[in-house]
Design goal:
This protein is an all-alpha fold and 267 residues long. The chain is built from twelve helices and two strands; from the N terminus they run αααααββααααααα. It has a two-stranded antiparallel ribbon. Strand 1 and strand 2 form a beta hairpin. Helix 7 packs parallel to helix 11, helix 8 runs antiparallel to helix 9 and helix 8 runs antiparallel to helix 11. The termini are far apart.
Amino acid sequence: MHPPDSTDASQRSAAVDSDAARFRDAARPGRLQGALFQSIGDAGRAELVERRLASAITGGHLRAGERLPSENDLARTFGVAPTTVRESLLALRTQGLVVTRRGRNGGSFVADSADPVAHARTALAATSRLALRDMGAHYAAITAACVRLAARRAVASEVQLIRARLIRLEPTDLAQWRSALDDVQVELVSLSQSARLTREQMRLQAEISPLLRLIDAVEDSRVLERQLLLAVVDAVESGDAQAAVDATERMVDSVIDALIELQISGR
């Protein structure tokens, strides 16, 4: 037998160290993995339900005096326990957004004092211009991705139905304007046939919609917004993906500029 060679031993040791280093690098999470495992926060289910209902009220999707579904129905809808819904409604009553009435025709109702426009003004005043621009950039990116796909995948008859609904909408009917326009936006992006993109656009639509009610107060703004949206619809129907993206960006830029102008004027 030959005596062990010190050079071989050193090489083996270096190889072991190298393998260990590679293992440590592999075990260290990459950027995406690190993002996926960030804290999701400690908000409880009751708080999440509270936020969802509060957003629906302050966004005008649930109107003053409107009766909410029963606690059991809300629990089934949100996939939580009735006690969780009860806790959420208590918090909403404390905020003055919900009132509870007893008796045969009782239940939980949106408070008469719940004014979506007032909430929107408060939210706009508290939002920086940088944050508004960032919101617009996010909204434009997701909506543009949707309409790009819609221009390639939509059936002409489906787009024509959306256009007809948009044209029939009266700019003077302020009560119906925002909810109808939101519905048209969702119908249009759903033609992308991408469930994930559509869900994200719907989430963003719900976020920005309350602020858009402030712009809706001016009839000229409503007319302009419909014209810009019709340009997106036309591009989708013609199958011109780039034109649909460009029209979407013009529409979003116009909306964000209008919000910033309102913010500056303090109206």
